[in-house]
Amino acid sequence: MTAQQLILRQRGELLSALCCGGSSEGLESVLDLLMAWGVLAWEDYQSTRLPGSLALCARTRELLDLVYIKGDVACRMFLAAFKQVLPDAQKAGINFGNSCIVDLEVQNELPCRAIQTLQADRPSLVRKLRGSIEGALEVLLDTGSFTPLDCDGVQLPVYTPSQQARCLLDQVRSKGEHAAEVLLQFVEEREQPPSPSIEDDRTIPKECLWYQKKLQSSLSAQSHFFISTNSGTISLSLDDIYIDGHLELAQASSESQPQRGAIGLEDLVGLVGTLNQEADTVLISGEPGTGKSTLLQRLHLLWARGTALHDFLLLFAFSCRTLSSEQRELSLKELLFVHCCWPDGDQDQLFQFILDNPHLILITFDGLDELKQCFSDSGQRHCCPTQRAPIPTLIFNLLQGSLMKGVVTSRPDVVRPALRRYLRKEVFLKGFSPNAIKCFVRKHHSDPHVANRVLESLQNNTALLGLCHIPVFCWIVSKCYKELLGCGASEGGPQTITDVYLMMLQHFFQDRDCLRKPTGTEWLREHQETALHLGQLALDGIRGSCYTFTSTELLKCGVTENDICMGFLVNRRHPSSFCNIVHYEFLHITMQCFFAALHIVLNNNLDRSAIPKIFQPKDRQPTPGLHRACLGHCLTQEEEVLKEAAMAAQSPNTQITATFVSGLLSHRHRSLLLLSCPGPTLDKKSKQAVRCLSKGMHKHFKSIPQPVEREKKSMHAMPDFVWLIKCIYEMQERSIAKDTMATLEVEHLKLTYCHIGPVECTALAYVLQHLRNPVGLQLDYNSVGDVGVEQLLPCLHVCHSLYLRSNNISDEGIRKLIERGIQCKSFQKIALFNNRLTDACTQHLAHLLKMKQNFLALRLGNNNITAAGAEQLAEGLRLNRSLRFLGLWGNSIGDKGTEAIANALKNSQTLVWLSLVDNGVGSTGACAIATLIKNSTLEELWLTKNCITRAGVEFIVQALESNTSVKAVWLRGNELSAEEIEELTQKEPRLIF
Ligand SMILES: Nc1ncnc2c1ncn2[C@@H]1O[C@H](COP(=O)(O)OP(=O)(O)OP(=O)(O)O)[C@@H](O)[C@H]1O
Asked: Is there an atom of ligand 1 within 6 Å of 471 CB?
């Protein structure tokens, strides 16, 4: 089949592979390559971009048409580019034929002009520039090649670093040859001089190259897992399961530029997102099970294969969990060689090379939260690489950058300001996107029929779909697909995390019982002993922050060979032990928490205080890093009990355990547990848990300060608040949610930066829907996403305002939100600043404005709305009689969009605030705004950072002559000279420049 036919036949698949996930990065990278290879001319490229409003799918279709028309060679090149750019999961199932090898003869002749070089080297220039946009702009400004306005255009906060780099290249091209030369020279100068670099093998001792090979093969081996099943042991490679998770820079690189950009693995140790040039540590933080360890393993594997982290000669990988069990003091040399990889040759020579070339060494620490001590920089300063120190001291000094570069992963709870000071950058791992879930399921099930059925059941159960954003839950759901598909539609399928883990428990137990499957709910009773043994081990571990166990510890808890064979424990050979000591771990820490919870619920002889202890809120904890021993001397006996409880709560894993306890004590699982535990005992435990939850919530409510005069009563949720809400959700008892919410009296509920994803949204909606009076729900700067929005719908009727700034929401999420919002009487305000909205959502927003004549505020700043979207929005604005605030800051509606909006609003008798900041508005737009000013109720008008000239401002001045309501018109950053500003301010003091 020819390449042309392949493209035609697979148009749908190619389209969905390039568009799935909503990110244009795949398409843009394909375009970069096609331009570089000379398949597309500049004009062709432009046709896939113009008009700027084209949605991703439309642009992709445009490209497919273009290459098809260009003939078979172009199609071959397209397929080659596609194959090169997209990750495996996205190109699965696509037939590339054997025609997709790049035909180098088609490439451009060697470029002789700078502009041609920009095109020919586009893919590598994008890579090089994305971490140094600011530097490049500075040089272009200094040489007069760029104006400040050009710079602003490139640095639009909605752009990811790669998009900024492409925009920069396009802008430079439009400026001509000189600008292109300046940029190329800048790039050349930025490239690191090759001082003892990996490229120059001759300067690297043989010893190191051998050691590198050894490290590489050890890390490659670690990417293979051996799983025992009934039919024997199967080997699974990381390649077989890995799907890219969503990585996001935690903070903006500069205050004025709130980067929302998702980044790729390659940017983890690159320049992108650098906050502190002096620091050498990169932190990857993420909630439990979001895939931090897996991501590190992937990074290690790519390094071992030579496909990533090219700048590092040696990579040392450590697990804090394993290091925690090391009691001895070690030197850096011992840490590297004993705990990671033993050198076969001359150790001293190798170590000296490491010390002399720290820039070629990368150290990774997985699971900082699993160290028994919190990070501290106040302890012993340790700079001598051969001197011994306790393991935490050694790690903390490495993280402070006194020795070499490092990457560290951690759950966010334990990342404290002391550590942040030493971070080069912080990156959040946010789990799977909706598309990644699909890819994961498809990769997991080679039978497409099964994969489709699993995906279908997820679509029909959005609570479960929400859970699947956390990879570990996605893995369980995929693994237990038979149990999942076995749930009839009427039963609804798993809804809570506890449901998912119970499903897994049943799956593992029944997998072993293949010859004699217990029926109905008997499976747990059949395996009660195993559950109790493993539960005891798990609980002891959680209490002592211990996640690896020796055979002796297993024995102490009564764990038998048979229990081990159930598959919940995996064994790991301790790297430091030459004496072959085997350590056991639960498959995942959340599984350890689940078993600990199972033990608390099933064990009839447990201490009465077991449940209150695990529900102890975090603020009762001792200062982080404090040891049992230090507290012991100075406390009374009563305080000792409190201390015990506080210690138990110290680990975030205790909270996860408490969440599972709540779930297991839910009425829904009563019939299952009754076979193993007497009813009265279960009732007692359940009452205890409910009491703890209700006490915890009331403590929160009591802490709400009285509002100052004329301010709303507002509650800023503490992290424990979200956890308590999740526990209530796990219990699935509406009466508890109702009773709790009956006493909450606030007008505003603030949950910004609380790591709220779809799972938390499900729980929030479950509880908040019982609020007595509507509130403003502020969820800014979380990871709600489209699935989270859908989960929030049940509580929309009790939200008068919904704030969802920076939440990775797309048009689809907005469509669903509005569909429901229209039916909610109290719903009056929405803030959607910095999401992924395009013109495809404006028709829905217009519909909302038409339908809701009590709607007050619509804030859409920093999205991708263009003139076409503004025109659609205007349809709604024209028919609305209530809107007071309209924010469109940082979109690109231009003059045309401004005319449409101004026209639609010119008879508004309610609008008091309008922002069109940074929208490419020129004097034509200003003229339209002047007509709006004439007879409107507007009080504040924001037109900062546009391209309005004096002529445009004159229209506004004239309009203001007959208007008394307007108090201020902000015009900073437009195209006016200092003299013009002076003169216009004299004329109209309400203009602010
Ligand atoms: N990117 C991924 N691709 C495929 N599967 C993944 C991915 N990330 C995680 N998983 C699955 O989820 C499980 C848990 O992931 P992992 O242990 O990496 O999470 P974590 O964030 O390190 O959790 P914790 O904070 O509890 O240690 C893995 O064993 C794997 O099955």
From this structure: yes
